[in-house]
Amino acid sequence: MTGGERPALNALDGDALNGDAVNGADRPLVRVRGLRKSFGGHVVLDGVDLDVREGEVTVLLGPSGSGKSTLLRCVNHLEKPDGGFVELGGEIVGYRASGGRLHELRPRHIVRQRSRIGMVFQQFNLFPHLTVIENVTEAPVSVRGTPRKRAAEHARELLARVGLAGREDAYPRQLSGGQQQRVAIARALAMEPRLMLFDEPTSALDPELVGEVLAVVRDLALSGMTMIVVTHEIGFAREVADTVVFLDGGRVVESGPPEVVLTAPRHERARAFFAAVL
Amino acid sequence: MTTAKEDRTPKEPPTPERSRAAPGDPPVPVLDRRPSDEQLLAARLVPLRRPGQWVSAVVLLVLFAMLVHTLLTNDRFQWDVVGRYFTRAPILHGLALTLWLTAAVMASGYLLGVGIAAMRLSGNRVLRALSFGYVWIVRSVPPLVQLLFWYELASLYPTLSLGIPFGREFVTFRTAHMFSGVLAAYVGLTLDVAAFSAEIVRGGVLSVDRGQTEAAQALGLGRSRVFRRIVLPQAMPAIVPASGNLLIGLLKATSIVSVIAVQDLLYSAQLIYNQNFLIVPLLLVATIWYVVLTTLLSVGQHYVERHYARGRRGAGGGGGAARAGRGVWDVARANLSLFGATRRDLAGLS
Asked: Per residue in A58-78, pLDDT tens?
């Protein structure tokens, strides 16, 4: 694993990276253990283990229905796992361990945990009734209590960073899909998260718009952000990932550096998948 | 003109131009050859004539003129009587009661309705079933029947008491004098509006994409913040038109309280014509007031709808209403500007 060597290029991420009081030096930022989840009778996650170290980029690959998105959504407790746990910075996400049980946390505690995790969705999910800058400042103002003016300044910096300076007062509907997704990234970064989750960020985009979004994600990776990315862009995984995890049928089938997993997968199912998509 | 250009047209086999002309069309210059590209480019576009629409428009206009004529000339409408009674004290008192009953019922009905909608949308099976049952039973019973039940509550339950369910009672009071006509009307109509508004609110909330809630949650927004700031504003475009309908319906539905002798606008008019037998003019007085109030509400609804159209249209949302933080007061003020007199009155006051 090569993540530790990444320099923290961008000053904006400084705070997020320094908040490592709870973690020991080599304790991963994210630890997933024995995660299980079913919908109805259908098992989606069947005992998943995953480690993501500070500053690392982990790419989740696998056929549709393999549980990639569900795993990602369990990390910030948008889905409640049926078993197992997710730990972020030494804290169990969504639960409190006491007396041999995991008690579900009150919403305001979950809210606090979520504010450290940024998430970018396949369908962007920008708030259509708010302008671009209102989308970005909403969470810092209402969750952190940041003064509106300071939040707006920060938002402008972030929008410039994703290449959208000057579009602050547009409504989402007036932007292309690629621009909307870049606003969504800026919106997630506004909370200065320690971890970013990307759920197929380019799957809903026209082909010519994929590049501009991937470029922003790549820059973010280079700046040292810890990220978990679900994607079908194998080229992107090869270039940016520190670890590639291949899921199938709700289990981790293959895990390792991209040059190993992508070029010489050991598992038959992974070999077939990469043969089909590469 | 056509002959001059015909020389330049490329030589092509003659086309059966004549067969395309419809019998009713004005005579088209008949060409032996296909017109040149230049001729086609210079040609004026003639929209399809729709004589049927014209005929029906004229017929309806004539009927409308007849209606206006009879309204003005049939002296049995007694417009002078209408004018005399239009602003009489009993009518205005009735009008006031109609207005505040409508406002009170709407406010408390929606408060209750939002709660019932929340129950229906909750994860708890018992709450969902109760909410469903409430809406089902209330929507099934005509409001007039509900009203009569509340009015007759005393005969059903002579006393009411506060205490432990199925156990000791602390306070007991008699219902005989509790449910006056107005209170029965207020309670009955509120329960009715609650059922309908619950469905309207539920529909509005369901119309908002689930991803909106998830995105807001992922940002760390609290539950009430997600609802107030993200879900509700997007549900409003679905909620407002239906609610406007409900409000206008309620304004008129308050007239059913006349059956339990509550002196609203209609019953006040009835009391007068029971004495002087000027039935039609007094019904017209009430009718015109209902029309005026409904018009005002429709105008208000238009502005509220425009306010919540923010970000929905391509060119920056609802015109001047596009900025954030435009409150209810601004919408109200926008409405006032339509009625210059009212505005001038306000200016004089301040």
From this structure: 999 999 888 999 999 999 999
Give B58 or B2, the one with higher predicted confidence.
B58
| Cross-strand partners of A198 | A120, A229
Distance from C-alpha of A120 to C-alpha of A229, rounded to nearest angstrom: 9
Report chain B residues whose CB lies below 8 A from the CB of A173.
311-314
Domain ranges of chain B: 2-42, 50-76, 86-164+172-307
| DSSP secondary structure letters along chain A | --GGG-----GGGHHHHH--SSS-TTS-SEEEEEEEEEETTEEEEEEEEEEE-TT-EEEEE--TTSSHHHHHHHHTTSS--SEEEEEETTEESSEEEETTEEEEPPHHHHHHHHTTEEEE-TT----TTS-HHHHHHHHIIIII---HHHHHHHHHHHHHHTT-TT-TT--GGGS-HHHHHHHHHHHHHTT--SEEEEESTTTTS-HHHHHHHHHHHHHHHHTT-EEEEE-S-HHHHHHH-SEEEEEETTEEEEEE-HHHHTTS--SHHHHHHHHHH-
- A3-116+193-277: CATH superfamily: P-loop containing nucleotide triphosphate hydrolases (3.40.50.300)
pLDDT for res A13: 38
How many other β-carbons are positioned within 10 Å of the β-carbon of residue A223? Answer: 18
SS3 state at B219: coil
Mark yes or no for CB contact B218/A173 under 8 Å.
Answer: no
pLDDT 10s digits, A175-215:
999 999 999 999 999 999 999 999 999 999 999 999 999 99
β-partners of residue A59 are A229, A244
Architecture of domain B86-164+172-307: Orthogonal Bundle (1.10)
Residue carrying the six token digits 């601004």: B330
| Confidence check on the interface: ipTM exceeds 0.95, yes or no | no
- Using CA atoms, how far apart are residues B291 and B283, in angstroms rounded to an integer? 12
- Domain assignments of chain A as residue spans, ordered by start: 3-116+193-277, 128-192
The pLDDT mean for chain B works out to: 82
Q: Please name the residue of chain A whose CA is at the shortest distance from the CA of residue B219.
A: A115
Residue of A nearest to B307 (CA): A129
Nearest residue of B to residue A145 by CA position? Answer: B221
pLDDT, residue A158, reads: 95
Residue B287 DSSP one-character state: H
How is residue A42 written in tokens?
């259908």
Cβ distance A134 to B324 less than 8 Å, yes or no, reads yes
As a whole number, mean pLDDT of residues A97-115 equals 88
pLDDT of B33 over the 60 cut: yes
pLDDT band at B170 (very low <50, low <70, confident <90, very high): confident
Question: Chain B: nearest CA to A187, how far in angstroms?
Answer: 8
**Does A152 contact chain B (CB < 8 Å)?**
no
Average pLDDT over residues B124-136: 95
